[in-house]
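Quick board copy: two proteins, each given as sequence then tokens.
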Amino acid sequence: MAGEELWVIARGSEPVAQRSNESPGSGALLARFEEKEVPMPLKHTSVHASISGYISAVEVTQQFHNPYSSKIEAVYVFPLPHNAAVNEFIMSLGQRRIRGIIRERKEAEAIYQEARRQGYVASLLTEERPNIFTQSVANIEPGNEIEVNIKYFHTPTYVEGWYEFVFPMVVGPRFNPPGMTEGIGAVARGKNGTSGQSTEVQYLKPGESTGHDISLQVDVDAGVPIEEFECKTHEVTHTSSAPERLTVSLSPADGLPNKDFVLRYHVAGDHIKSSLLTHRDERGGFFTLMLNPPSELAALRRQPLEIVFVLDCSGSMDGRPIEQAKAAVHRGLRLLQPGDSFQLITFSMTASRFGRAPLEATPENIHRALQYLNSLRGEGGTMMFEGIKAALDFPHDPHRLRFVCFLTDGYIGNESEILGEIHQRLGDSRIF
């Protein structure tokens, strides 16, 4: 596009942990005046979220106004959910259009060089903090209408059969340690300049409302039938074109963004649900295969298991390491079900088995194994190869799934040899 400015932004190499007092909030455009920044009037926010399986693509469009009589510099701040990644943003300022794309560093540098070669006005920037998207723009004309379009991806949370999608509409008060001046401060309305931070955004007190409105629509393709949904935070309307699809829209009567929007929908039922989602673009075809467990796992029948615990009893494991490993085996034995079997193998200079063959997971056998486990101590060298042979070289019941669990501190120098032996002997065992 002629006259378009291209910003290529290299994604930060290491994400910064989001502090508990930095909850995501709706975007703000802040006019910068020497040592302070003032929020510019936000007129409208439009949100469209498209959820496919467990991935949410969110597009936010915000309209701001520059009320000042001279050119200004402004910084756009958009705090993100902790597991979100911005893919693209577009800022339109009258006849001026800025397009920003966010990529990994090597890809960003390649795109930047190609854009320059094609004659674009391009800038290569670095994202300092992946969970707070911040970009500065200079020379905003007086009276300009500014439109910001930002697109990001994130994963809704999934707990006990329920997906939860949250779109933050307000910013909460934040605490920053004394002397910290480079953070994002949140202040009550009319209290700019009181947080001591270089960038400030306003939050709402209970009962306050913003001076703008918001429209929001969420399209869900869960891939499996949706059992039920709820939105306790806002008044919504909804439609459904298929059992696995749901469209939820914010009611016009509830369009003031004075609390976060939370949509929850339940996909777990009485049985395992499976789904296949497909996607095709210029890069080719992609698919996602999903399996959703039932609501009640206890009622789910599973194939009997054969669990082989391989415990490192070398000298480096003596003390706390071996006690932690024994506690893990203790818990694993207690979780076995009737029909399962188990084996305990220990190794240091040599390897030894608790039983000549895997034992049925009866209360008596588990009790004997726990007594044996409690007697173990750490001593000798770490001949891990002996433990691998003992665990993988004997036949097992094909009607049971075999899981081999290694518990070791890993203090060995022949890792390549060990991994090679595992690949040669693994068969249909699953090793952890």
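And the next:
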Amino acid sequence: MKYRVIQWATGGMGKNCLRAVIDHPAMELVGVYVYGEAKAGRDAGEIARRPPTGVLATRDVDEILALDADVVIHAARLTPQTHDADIVRLLASGKNVISINGYSRPQYWGGERQAALEAACAKGGTTLMNAGLNPGFAGEQLALVATGVCAAIDHVEVIESADCRLVRNPAYLFDALGFGAEAYDLSAKVHTGDPAFLIDLPHRDLRKFSVF
């Protein structure tokens, strides 16, 4: 039995996800959602540079919602905080969602945003999972390993650097992720996933934290 998969968006990240789904023997691609008119109606294989799949991309969300699928790989465009409405509809329609857009610890968000996602999961009998570099890739792991042999810790600082000159979408790095920005120019909510990741480790009993 194969997992029936929908690919949501086929940008730089989404296209790689689409290729992985097409190539995986345990997955069956059943739908592709795209934002642009140029990709609508095209075979998913053509978009991913793979052989034809018979699955045509669509811009119609209702078509996606009507499909019978186990999971949606959600690789939507920038401004990830604006995608809740789509994810809520997908979850409520009975489809599990794996998103690369910062849904690592929604249980710490509180308020209406958290409640809407939880209600959608309950209605559809589904789950929401985060993937990708959220809350990070190595920094959190490095801090845990380095401090694991310490008897006392006064301060931990991890500095991450990367060569961004060849990145094809500068807006992703500088606008969405805040590379090069001053700390006071960024929303504190951007960093919620990092302390939440540490708090959720075994033997931690902290139920609330603040980022400021």
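Board note added afterward: Residues 55 and 132 are 25 Å apart (CA to CA).
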